[in-house]
Amino acid sequence: AIVKHNKKLQDEFVNFSKQEDNSNGQLSLKSLLLKIAVVQEQYFTEFNKIDLENPDWDNYNPPYSGYIEEWEQYQQASEQEFGQVFEHFKSKAIDSIIRQQIDDFIAMLLGLYEACLNVEIKDEVGSFDDVNDYLTDEHQRIMLELIDKIKMSAISDHKVMPAIKLFFDYCDAEYPGNPGYPNYFEPLILALADFSGQPDKLLSYIDDSKVDRKALPQLILLLNKNAGHKTD
Question: What distance in Å separates the CA atoms of residue 51 and residue 127, rounded to the nearest whole number?
Fold first, then answer.
């Protein structure tokens, strides 16, 4: 009855049913790397359109009335422009979740993260302590909101497993031996792993990679619990 009266759930249910019998069309590591590079370049462009010395004052909406310091106005105006970019990304990412394109969704998040880390934006007026730190904080905020969407979705195990495997392949290719990178994305992998009925296989993905189990304590705990292991 719930599905019958909810178009969004209907779409998710149809996609779930299709993907249960279809494990084809997954991204390879090569195509994942290309997708990440394309997304990174796209958001390099989007972020660099925002001029911190000359924000979009016509569309600036002060968050509260009363006196606001000039430096704060610059910061708020710039934050609002950045916010529009992130919200547009979130809308596209939600579409990929609904379409069960989980590997594509992960590529989008990784590409945006690379853009946030590496984009070079001039901040002559000192609107931010560190622009890249601000952008990565916003990336984390958006990622957590998207994780909430994932938790409310019906995602096929056939889509989750190869997507998680690709994530660890990417960590090996680009961040070998770096525990901070997989740890940053642990909440995402944790949410996806909850849809999998193959915890032992997911553990093998980690052990076959260069990712240390200690970098993913919550994920390891969940997988061991689901696999019925008493100890790590």
Answer: 11
Alpha-carbon gap, residue 101 to 139, rounded angstroms: 20
Whether 49 contacts 122, CB under 8 Å: no
Planar angle of CA 21, 14, 159, nearest 5 degrees: 45
Cα–Cα distance measured from residue 136 to residue 35, given in angstroms and rounded to the nearest whole number: 19
- Could you give the CA distance from residue 205 to residue 167 in angstroms, rounded to a whole number? 10
Q: Report the Cα 164 to chain-centroid distance in Å.
A: 13
CA-to-CA dists, residue 84 to 77, 201, 207, angstroms: 11, 39, 39
**Which two three-digit tokens encode residue 205?**
């993905």
- pTM value is 0.85
At 3, which helix (H) or strand (E)?
none
Instruction: Find the mean pLDDT for residues 43-58.
Output: 88
Q: Could you write out the DSSP letters of every residue in 194-209? A: TT-S-HHHHHHHHHTS
Q: Give 54-104 pLDDT, tens digit per residue.
A: 887 778 777 776 777 777 788 888 898 999 999 999 999 999 999 999 999
User: Alpha-carbon distance 229 to 141, whole Å?
Assistant: 33
CA distance 71 to 132: 18
pLDDT in tens, 101-133: 999 999 999 999 999 999 999 988 888 999 999
Q: Chain-centre distance of CA 139, in angstroms?
A: 7
CB atoms near residue 31 (< 10 Å): 14
Handedness of CA 83, 86, 92, 98 (dihedral sign): negative
